[in-house]
Automatic annotation (TrEMBL):
This is Endoribonuclease YbeY. Its cofactor is Zn(2+). Belongs to the endoribonuclease YbeY family. Binds 1 zinc ion. It comes from Alteripontixanthobacter maritimus.
Length: 170
């Protein structure tokens, strides 16, 4: 998967590397994302921009941690042949101040929390949705946990850890 990454309003860091590592790990667990034709855009932005996107596209007048905007239906994604022109999977946007606050509350590095949110967003782009049913939520959390473990990162859904919910996905 080819990522187009734009960083605006985040501190200096290896955000391209974080995004590419999260995408690679996610594609190893979610086979539908393991297609070199796929492209996705990742926006690391200030909360003010995320707030505007959330208000415009979701009707929620507040900042949030992550937004995802899929451009392919799950059936189209799964059946996408390996050969052909690039295909836009969708867009993901992360809000800096919200992500930083949540990382601080959890006592984890911002990069680790951003990786989790990117994985969460990528799974949404792949057609997974934790809001459709409790069973779907459990399944999506299990995928996230498996992907994070493959990256050497802790389970954000561990009962013993204080983990704010991933709230801003579409």
């Amino acid at each position: 998967m080819q990522l187009y990454i734009d960083v605006e309003g985040w501190p200096e860091g290896e955000w391209d590397a974080v995004a590419n590592r999260a995408a690679s790990a996610t594609a190893k667990v979610e086979p539908a994302l393991d297609n070199s034709r796929l492209t996705a855009s990742i926006l690391f932005a200030a909360d003010i921009e995320i707030h505007a996107l959330n208000r415009e596209w979701r009707g929620k007048d507040q900042a949030t941690n992550v937004l995802s905007f899929p451009m392919l239906e799950r059936n189209s994604l799964v059946s996408l042949p390996a050969d052909g022109p690039p295909e836009m999977l969708g867009d993901i946007a992360l809000g800096y101040e919200t992500c930083q606050r949540e990382a601080d509350e959890k006592g984890i590095p911002l990069a680790d929390h951003a990786a989790h949110l990117l994985i969460h967003g990528l799974l949404h782009l792949a057609g997974h949705d934790h809001e459709t049913s409790p069973a779907d939520a459990v399944a999506m959390e299990a995928l996230e946990t498996k992907i994070l473990a493959s990256m050497g990162l802790a389970d954000p859904y561990d009962e013993n850890a204080a983990d704010p919910p991933v709230t801003g996905v579409q």
